Amino acid sequence: MKGNVLVGQSGGPTAVINSSLAGVFKNAMERGYNKVYGMRYGIQGFMDEQYIDLSDHIKNELDLELLKRTPSAFLGTCRYKLPEIHEDRAVYERIFELLDKLDIEVFIYIGGNDSMDTIRKLFDYSLLTGAKQKFVGCPKTIDNDLAITDHTPGFGSAAKYIATSTKEIIRDAMGFSYKKKNVNIVEIMGRNAGWLTGSAALSRSEDCEGPDLIYLPEVPFDTEAFVQKVKALLDKKDVVVAVVSEGIKTADGKYVCENTAGSTTKDAFGHIQMTGTAAYLAEVVHNELNCKTRAIELSTLQRAAAHLASKIDVDEAFNVGGATVKAADEGSSGVMVVIDRVSDDPYQSATGVYDVHRIANGEKVVPRKWINKAGDYVTEEFLDYVRPLIQGHYMPMMVEGLPRHLNMNLKNYDWARSTTRK
Prior knowledge:
By secondary structure, the chain is α/β, with parallel strands linked by helices. The chain has helices at residues 17-30, 42-46, 61-68, 89-101, 113-129, 155-174, 195-198, 223-234, 277-289, 301-304, 311-329, 380-386, 415-418; strands at 4-9, 36-39, 51-53, 104-111, 134-139, 182-188, 213-215, 239-245, 292-297, 335-344, 347-355, 398-399, 402-403. It has two domains: 4-153 and 306-362 and 393-410, Rossmann fold, CATH 3.40.50.450; 155-304, Rossmann fold (3-Layer(aba) Sandwich), CATH 3.40.50.460. The chain is 33% helix and 17% strand. The two termini are 45 Å apart.
C-alpha cells in the first residue's frame, strides 16, 4: 500500500491556488495514496503539527468544484524561510520526524520562488540522510516571475482582472472629464517583474483606448520625465491614465515606494513592503501640474478575484497540481512542475518537470524587447504572449447573488442544499 501525501501552500495566494490543491487531492486519491494531509499555514504551521486530513473537507465532486472556485489559500499560507542545513539542522530533524510519523511518501509545496527554495532545501536534506520522501514543487504566483516555466498558474486570472479593472477605471475617468483635467495613476503588484503591470495594456480594444502610459520595473524610472509626459498629454486631452508597477526603481536602484513611510517593513526573505508608489506619484503630479489626481492601488484584489478567473488559468492550475503527484509517483524528486507552451493558435500547453535548483530564488522578468523604446508601454509581442492566458471564464457557484466558497471552518454546512437556492 502507498503511503500518504502532504501538501502545503506558501507565499501570496492567487485566485486559482486552490485549483492546484484540488488537482493534488484528486490525483493522489486516484493513484491510490492512503491519505492527503494539508499543512495549515505552510511549513511553519506544520512544524507545530498543524495539519488536516483533506478527506474531512473534500467529500464529493461538489466540494472539489467549490474548492477550485475558492480564492486565497484554503490551507492557510506563510512566508517562512528555512535556514540552510548547516545553520540549524534541528529544524530539519523536526520536519522529517513529523514526515515519518505521518508516513508521508510525497511532499508537495504550492508556491513561488521562495517556496521552491523550501523544496530545494528539503530535497537536499533527504539526499544527505537517505530519507524516503519525494519533494515536488507546484508553481504559483500572480507575478509570473518563476524561471523556466512559460508562465505560472495565477498570473492569467490576475492579468484578466487587471485588464478589466483598467478598462473600468478609464471609463469612470472619462465620465468626469468635462472641463476638468484629471490624472489617474494605477498601481499594480509584481515586485521586480512587470508581467502584471504590462497586462493592463490588454484593456486597449475597439471600445477602449487603454492606458496612456505603462511603467514596468525592468526599465529605470525617471519621476521628472514622467511628470513632463503627463503634462504633454494633458495639453492634448482632459484625462490621463497611467499604470505603474509597485516595483519601479530610479536609475540608482531605489524603489519609488521608498519615498513613502510604508516601505520600511520587510518579510522573512528580506522583501520590503511595497505600497504607496501611485500615491507618491499622484502627489508629485498634483503639486507640479496643479490638476486633480487619483491614486488607485488594486492591492490584494488582484490575487483574490476568483469571480473573474480565467478558465485557462483554472484548468492549468488543476492540471499542474495533478502533475506534481504524477511526477513523484513516477520517481521524480527535487523538481518543480513547469508549463510548456505548445502553440498559440489554438492555444495549447503541456506539463513537464525541471530541477528545482535551477528555479529556486531566480526571477524571470519581462524581456526588454517586449517594452517599447521609450520605456512607457509594452509591445504587441508582450500582448500576444499574455492574451491566450486570460481566455474563458470559470463561473462561480452563486448563492443568493454571491459566489459560494469552500470554508473549512464551515465544514458541516450543507453545500449541496445551499447551492440550489436562487
